[in-house]
Specification:
single chain, alpha/beta, Protein-Tyrosine Phosphatase, Chain A, six-stranded mixed sheet, UDP-N-acetylmuramoyl-L-alanyl-D-glutamate--2, 6-diaminopimelate ligase, ligase, EC 6.3.2.13
Length: about 500
Amino acid sequence: MKLQKMLEETGHSAFCSEELESVDIKGIEANSSKTEEGYLFVAITGYQRDGHDYIQDAIDRGAAAVIGEQNLADLTVPYVRVENSRDSLANLAAHFYDFPSAKHIMIGITGTNGKTTTSFMLRHILEYAGYSCALFGTVHNVINGQTYDSKNTTPDSLELQKLLAKSDDDIVIMEVSSHGLAQKRLEGIEYDIGLFTNLAHEHLDYHHTIEEYFEVKQLLFSKLKEGGQAIISTHDEWGEKLTDLLNQRKIKVSTFGKTDKDDLIFDSKSDVHCSDFQVTESGKQLHFQMTIPGLHNIYNASMAYLTGRKIGIESDRLIDAFKSFPGIPGRFEMYSHPNDATAVIDYAHTADAFSYCLKTARDCGAKRIVHVFGFRGDRDESKRDEMMAVSSQMTDCTILTLDDLNGIDQNDMIAELEKYREASGKAADLIIPDRTLAIKKAWDMAKAGDWILVTGKGSEVYKDNYELPSKSDQETFALLIDQNTTIAT
């Protein structure tokens, strides 16, 4: 593909020149080590590394041209200086791969909590109805029925276009993170349906204020195709605010909430701890039987259901599909304890998510709740007070432990945990820095009717080493369950 044509058709015509007319581009890369003969190398100013420092390496590997932001001269290949190379990469990648999102029904899901669960539920019910679905998200990516590791909730713009081009699926379901929106990873993609689950205190180390966080989240709905639709949960003020905003823009909006103005109305008398719930749609009451408990999962299921309806699937078929939903790795993943207690692993890492998980345990009849969690190093510290307050108020014992340190000194993090344990004022609360031993302590404490909740990592692999020979919370539980495994502590 001719570079001149690519630039002209992506709004970069001002940079065109006779020098570029003969440059033929065989691929695009932002990683110099992956650059091959005839590739266009785009230098991105990252958070840890600056791609401009690797331009010569890309040229040595065969780059035919380079795009960047700095004023550079004397390169041996054509160089195009742009204002924002990250934006340019996204648009050029979409063009190079011939706008692959256009061949799919595109569904984007944003919000603080519930993106992963909603996406898995949605994929399950759509495939039950006969559609093939790609899935891009936090746990893994699924393309053409094959599962691939996921590095980020929302892939970078170049990887995303490659994956979309690879997919032959009818529908693409994407978790859309605020980082993905802020960093322009989604340029060149238009969505048929956009979902908004909720907004809570999270990522304010990056977005600074909850208002700025909301403004970034709502950018998803500026990427709807003409005639595209929004599906919004109105259970918090941000859902209501977004609904009003999109109505002003004349965008089609369907809502799930608790008032007569909502398209899908939740029946507050639903027996949520038994995973059964009722909703009303167009005056008709519908009864759902779920495989996982919790009010938050009812919200997620309702969003998925509304999306299925907008695609045109019959109500009865969708309701039937939920009965066989297999669950999600690391999302309210339940384990049976030999003492007739219940153990749960969940990705919850905000006060709001804690509240839903802990309330579900109590609604399900928990006699005692033991909550194991830690704070992630080098992440939003402003949410920690709320997280500790919720855990302290809703549990019988909180065991504070380590999460990913991310370069933070372990002793400094332990001192931080001490501060929060002292502030809780609960004698039952403990600090056990080794995450695997913290989980074992909760396991050993459990009696009939108790619930153990281990939150923060879900299905993620540990970054740090611990005493027990396990690499995740899931493997730690597997060790504890296996009666043939001897664990020395």
